[in-house]
Amino acid sequence: MMYMMYFLLFGLVLGLAAVASNPSPYFAALGLVVVAGIGCGVLIWHGGSFLSLILFLIYLGGMLVVFAYSAALAAEPYPEGWGSWPVLGLMLGYLLGVVSVGMLFSSSMYDESWMVCDEFGEFYFVRGDMEGVATLYSSGGFMLAMGVWVLLVTLFVVLELTRGMSRGTLRAV
Amino acid sequence: MNPYILTILLFAMGLGTTITFASSHWLLAWMGLEINTLAILPLMCQSHHPRAVEATIKYFLTQATAAAMLLFASITNAWITGQWNLEFMSYSLPTTLVTVALALKIGLAPLHAWMPEVLQGLDLTTGLILSTWQKLAPFCLLLQINPSNTSLLLILGLASTLVGGWGGLNQNQLRKILAYSSIAHLGWMILVLQFFPSLTLLTLLMYFVMTFSLFITFKVNNSTTINSLSMSWSKAPIISSMVPFILLSLGGLPPLSGFMPKWLILQELTKQSLAPLATLAALSALLSLYFYLRISYAMTLTMSPNILSNALPWRLPSNQHTLPLAITTSLTICLLPLTPAIITLLTL
Question: Rounded to a whole number, what is the distance in Å from the CA of B35 to chain A's nearest CA?
């Protein structure tokens, strides 16, 4: 189990370094897909299975797919990936930075364990994350309304920012 | 812009600041800050020309980075201490990270580089909203957290006053000068934050009044460079005669109201046995004073060479709303005798 968590977190850091080091949106979004998938896996290990499912569906299956389509429309004819030396150098630099900061903050390599502890234990009737969502809809009703209003404002903001297409803010592709 | 959209955006800006003011939970405070950032973006790129869009993007990126750092710090604090309250942060790493994130949000040195470029790309009214209203929510959070490290806030403050002074020296674009002036004043506010928070609030509100009058003066003159201010004496003589007082008040000279915050801050720093710091801060105010004097020199104290007919334009009744300018100019000049009352009113 610890090995599984170690493996997942290692992949997370690799994926994040890929997102940061790739100048082309295709490979960066691919890194994001990997990171989101692994994040969902880590979430499941910590007991948030419902949240992980929602994350997978909405974030990966909704937003990243839309991003992939829009990136494909604004096509880059010669995208640079890990094949080119500057990008690979950046990637290795980020990994080196993460490892050095990690070694700075951790006491040793063998003292600490990645053992997963679930907060609620075996005798709870509901999982923590599903209970949280239910609370949002019941006693957190005012915050839900606030969240809905802010989403509507976000819609207006995006529509206003992109109004006019190439005469406005958007690049004339 | 469509008036309904404008209403919704301004309402959202008010909502964001109100949410941050009313919050004691870090997630709610972060939410308010994000709403503020979101709502000002369309206001910033209203004119849709590339410079404004560039300013909008730069603003969005820096504010999103700061909000992400804030979220990271608050989650780290929740992980370590198990609670999400603003006032009870007792570990140094999350508190330091929160302070640095809020410094990036308001534009303190050495995290100030976005401020002149963003302000330069905006029109004067949006720049005013950016310099004043958007500083309220982060300051509300800064006033509430327990500072972890005495020297962090002092370094941020002193660096901001020095950078604000030196950075504004070689500028002839008014919006960049206003940006560096903002950085310098924010530095003064942060210097005294951990010793006497009421003075931070006092400096913030005084800065709002002073910079409001300056922004609106430039807007009335429709000028964005120092050169274009040089003919304002013939078009709006009363405004031109009052501007040196506004600028000297920003520079912190007695007997104008801008002296009030600087005086009280220097007094408080001396009481805390930080007299050399107080001396350095006072000397850095001289740098800012130089470019304020340069603006007043170009605008009021000298008449640039010009043909005779330009000195006698028709002074037609203007449609500009100058009542706010009149009120804030009077407050900028005459508020110093009310110092005890203001201190009492603003006691936190």
Answer: 7
